[in-house]
Structures are given as structure tokens and as C-alpha cells.
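Lecture notes, unit on protein representations.

Consider one protein chain, 182 amino acids long.
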Amino acid sequence: NLQLCLIILAVLFFSVIIMNVFIGVICEQYSAAKEAVDTRFRQLRAESCLSWLLRARVVPCSVLSSATANRLMILVGLIALATQIYCFIYRAYKPWVSTVFFCCQFATMSLAFQSPESPWVKNSQSADAAHYIWYCKRKVVEEEEDELEQELHSAMDEISSVMAEIYALEESSATSSSKKCM
């Protein structure tokens, strides 16, 4: 009987108290992550831009013009789509499918960097021109009252004070008239 009570107490202790502590920790971590989500999103976006620019320094970017690279990317995408349709229709995996997809992905990645007129490309024609990275931040606008609003607020305050005086006079006259009736 004592062993059964100890088992019940142990189960209650672990299921109620420990789980509540665990849930509390998870909630705190979620709140902290929720507050930092905008900062983390911007950090990941900046990391993506940085890795793109670093890759653009290594990958040859002036092999093709942008228009030719875009046309070839469409062609490569159609080849990948045709391969998928082929595999879907015949319901069989062929050994050459992996090679085709690898080549399509490599070609798409390489063609995405073909932009010889971009400022980040080495040996670009615009290498002498100055380029800047702009930092944009949302402006917090403080609401300032204009003169008309200030006049309106002062007039409303005057009206409120006059109304308070009128109500005070009415109450005092009502109390004095009730005293006369007695």
C-alpha cells in the first residue's frame, strides 16, 4: 500500500511539476525567439546577400550576357521538367536521371551569376565608378500637434471647465432649494 502511494506521488510529481517547469521554459524561449524574429530575419537576409556577393567574386560572371543566361535558364528548367514528366509517366527510375538533374542544377546556379554589367563582377566596365551599400531603417514618426489641433484642444478644455462650473452651480442651487422646502 505504501509502495502504491509512493508510485502515485512520483507520477504526479513528474507529470505535473516537472512538466509545468518544462512548459514554462519552452514558453520563455518562444517569447524570446518571437521578440528576436525580425532581427534574425534581417540577419539571415544579410547573410544571403553576403554569400551571393562572395560567390559572385569566385564564379565567372562575364561568360554570357544576362539575356542569353536567362534564355538558357529557361531551357534548363524545361529539360528538368521534361525529365520529371518522363519519370512520372513511365514510373521508373533511370540511372541517367540523377546526372541530368545534377547538370541542370549546376547550369542554373552558374547561369544565375551571368551578369557582366553588375558592379560586383570582377573586371566590370564600371569598376572605376563608386558603389555604395545603402542601409535603410524604418523611421518612427512622432505625432506632432499642429496649431489648429492645439487650438481645438484648448477650446475643448475651456468648454469642459465651463460645463463643470454650470453643473456645480446646478447642484448647489438644487441643494439650496431642497433645504428651503424642508
